[in-house]
Amino acid sequence: MYREFLTPDDEEVYESIGEWPDSDESGARVLTLHDDSGQSLIFAYDALPRSVRIHWVNDQGIEILDFFRESATRLSFTSGQSTKHISVEFSTVECTGTMEIQVTPHLSVRDRLLFP
Questions:
Q1: Residues with Cβ < 8 Å from 91, sequence gap 6 or more?
Q2: Where are the domains of the chain?
Q3: What is the pLDDT of residues 57-88, one digit of tens each?
């Protein structure tokens, strides 16, 4: 069964994390994020194929994570007093899960994909 990938509009993204998404050649929305230690994370999402991609490199340009997954169902951005987060929910016939990306004060990624 097909489920829609619910994504916020660009203004909501900006209001939550202070960054405007760009577009790549395929039409995916792309955010390039940096933390205080010099690490960078490129987060891309595309509503039609329901996909997300994360490319994270450290301050020396060494790749830490290159992640791609389809079956996303909901994307949200939140900010608190000292932290900003991206949350992506996934759902397939076999599995459901959530990925949490901390944007500030430093980058981190937690992913959980489980059998229901």
A1: 3, 71, 73, 97
A2: 10-114
A3: 999 999 999 999 999 999 999 999 889 999 99
